[in-house]
Structure formats: structure tokens, C-alpha cells
Amino acid sequence: MTDILIHMLLTIFMPPLLLGVIGKTKAAFAGRVGAPFLQPYYDLAKLIRKGSVFSDTTTWIFRAGPIITLAATLVAALLIPLGNHLSPISFAGDMILFAYLFALGRFFTTTAALDTGSSFEGMGAAREVTFACLAEPTLFFALMTLSRLSGSLSLSPMLTTLSLSLWFSAGAALLLLVGGMFIVLLAENCRIPFDDPTTHLELTMIHEVMVLDHSGPAFAYILYGAALKLFVLGAFFIHIALPLKTGNAILDWGVFILSMLGLAVTIGVVESIMARLRLLRIPQLLVAACILSAFSMLLILR
Amino acid sequence: MTEFADQLLVLVMLINFLVLGSSRMAIAIRAVAVQGVVLGVLPAIIHTFSWHLIAIIVGMILAKGLFIPWLLFGAMNKVQIKREVEPYIGYVSTLIIVAITTALAFVFAAKLPLAQEHQGLLFVPASIATIITGFLTLTTRRKAISQVIGYLILENGIFIFGLLLTSAMPVMVEAGALLDLLVGIFVMGIVINHISNEFSTIDTSRLTALKE
Fold it and tell me: What is the ipTM of this complex?
């Protein structure tokens, strides 16, 4: 019971902190003091209090987009086990639901973008779905590999049975999986080699351009949903990359929080030392990620 | 120990992908050098100590890790070719082709009637996959240097297969293979220089278009 409570509290309150840590890491690399760790919370609080402006040309889809996206991501957050604790909801085959909840969220983000009739937003939506359809096979190869390793079709047992001893017996396959999943993590969350979350040029944006017309609370939902997605996919990645287990429930939560913060720092470092890729190179890298995880599946199936 | 050998072979196959996926010559040359060094270390892991073995390892690392990359970098700087522009088949497509052929190599290797102690090892599929990568690099790239790199990868693939037999392979055969390779690289280097001197490009697809 307490575990479920902690799961909920972490899911609701931790995601913006990850963005704060990423921002602070980037600031440290640039030699700046940077915004405080809690800045994303302040931003969200500010946006929630603002009023909204809706264009006359938009329909209900535009208003529903941010809410459905956030709701889908929240449900996905209930399916993923955090740390070494089972998730609140779990059933055989929930990994498919997990993958397609993100697809549902993306579908509504892109249709809301198309609904505005802006050509820039349409361009962003086209890019988003193109890259998403290249990232999806990677996720599925990874899920297939993991379900083969654990002999289970449900995320909770699948991810919690991963352990350090597995790294010794199937190290090569897991290393490939970590490489592929890290690329997908960055691509799905629009982080730097794929998309710059702080860019101000519409022509180069992918995710940011789709949400240009949203304002006030709707934009807060979008920002919060993006942070939550980073949190959920990050938790998934942490299970594969750092399957640390202490056996003590409280200690496990501590390990989980520390490794999530470590992941945020890693993303910050990657963002600081890499430039954004040209749009033409992005599919290449995503196909490479797909091949990495397909290869890892091959090694496991053999 | 064979566990660790398997991890190294996975690395070798990843380098195959890297060579086919990168457009920069320098990356491809370094990747092939690393592949040569990894393959040089492999015999030490799977066979017991002998002077013959040491000779093979030192020869491999010196030739494939240092000497041949040095020659290739020299050729690259001389003709000022930094990247492969417009291969016959694009990077993403070649990556997908090599991924499929690697998968097929695993299937094929599982069907081969191998000796009992070689079954379940990665050597045979890795060897077939590397040979196919070599063929693909040779056939899909236009620049002569890339074709030399393809030739090197092809030889690496043959070497992996030979690893299974090293204890039975006399050092002269091994030295002969390395020497052949070296002569091949030399000849290619001279050819590259001549092509670039005569036609101010090392694009081999132009050669068929020559008319007096």
C-alpha cells in the first residue's frame, strides 16, 4: 500500500524536477549559475494561473489534445514499475498498452497541431510522426527481448526480474539494448541530438512547433506531460541500464530516485556536449537504434 | 572465456554496422583498425599459450591496427577525400540490408553441420556477417579508399573463420594471408594515387565512362 502511495507521489511530483536537474547541468557546463532546480514547478504554477486564448478556427480536438495526452501518459505511468517495486496496475500484455498509450498521446498532440491550420505546426506534426514510426520498432524489439529474457508479457515482472547477474550472462545483448533505448529516450522526449527543447526557430522545431498555439493551463498540461513522459521512459531505461537491488523497500526507493537524477544529469551532459543533428541524419540514427535492439533480440533468441 | 570472446565478436559486428553507416572516411578507417585489433586479441582468449600464437597476435595488431590504417590515412590525405558522397545504395538502406543479412547469417550458421565444440558459438555467424559486410562495402561505395576498406573487412571475416582452426593453421599460411593483404593494400594505394593523378577524382564509377 505504501509502495503504491509512494509510486503515485513520485509520479506526480518528481517529473519537473528532472527538467530542473537537466537545466542545472547544462548551466554548469556553460559556466552559468542557471535557473533553480524548482524552476519548472514555478513555470507550471504560473501557466496554470493564466487565462487561455483559443483561435476561432480550432475545434474541440485542439482543446482535448493536451488533456488526452497528459491522461494517456499518466495511465502509462501506472503500468511501469518504479525501482524494484511492482506497478499499481499490471496484467499480461500490458507492455503493448504501454507502448500505444504514448502513441495515443502523440496522435492527439499531432491532430491538435493540425487542427490549428498553421503550416508550421503541420510540418512539426509530420516530423513528429515520421520519427515516431522509426522509434517504435526499437521499443518493440526491446520489449520482445526483455519478455524473452524474463519469460513474461507484463511490464512489472519483466522489468523487476532484470538483475546485475543477468548483465554477466547476457551482457552484450543488454548493452545493445541500453544503447538503442537511450537513443529512443532522447528522440521520444525531444532532447538535443534530435530536437532542441529551447529552440526559437520554427523551421527547426519538431515538438515545440506543434504546441505554439496552446496557452495557459493547456500549455502547462503539455509541459507537464512532456516531463512525465521523460520520467516514465527514464524509469523504463533505468531498469535495463542499472538493475540495482538492495532488498530493502525504502532503500530501493532511494536508489531509484538517485538513479533517475543520475539519468537527468547524463541527459544534461549529452545535451551540453552534442550539437543538434541535421534533420536528414535523424532517421539514420533512429534506424541505427532499431538495428541495435533488433540485434540484441537476435542474440537472445539464438 | 568463450563468453568474453562472444562479447568481442558482437563488438566486431557492431563495427560492421558503423563502417556501413558512416559517411566519413576517417571514422571508417579507425573503425576497421579497431576491428583488426579486436580480432588480434581474440586468439589469445580462445587458445592456449604458444609462441606461434604470440606471433599471430603481434602480427595482426601491428599490421591491421597500425600499419594499414597509417597507409590508408596517408592515401586519404594525399587525395583529399574526407567523406564518401553519394554511395550507389544509401546509408540507411545498406544498414537495413546488412542487418537482414546478419540475421540470415545467424540462421544459416545454425543450419551448418559444425563440429560439436563449435556449435552455439558466435564465430561462424560473425564471420559470415563480416564477409557479407565486406562485399557490401566493396560493391556499394564509389570511392577507391572505401573499396579498400571493404576488402579489409572481407579479410577480417575470413580471419574469424580461420580462428576456429588456428591451432591447426601453420604460421606460414597466416603470414602469407597477411602478406597478400598488405600487397593488395599497396597496389590499391598506388592505383588510388594514379586514378586521382590522371582524372582528378577517385570515383571509380567514372572509369567506365572513359573514351579516347
Answer: 0.72
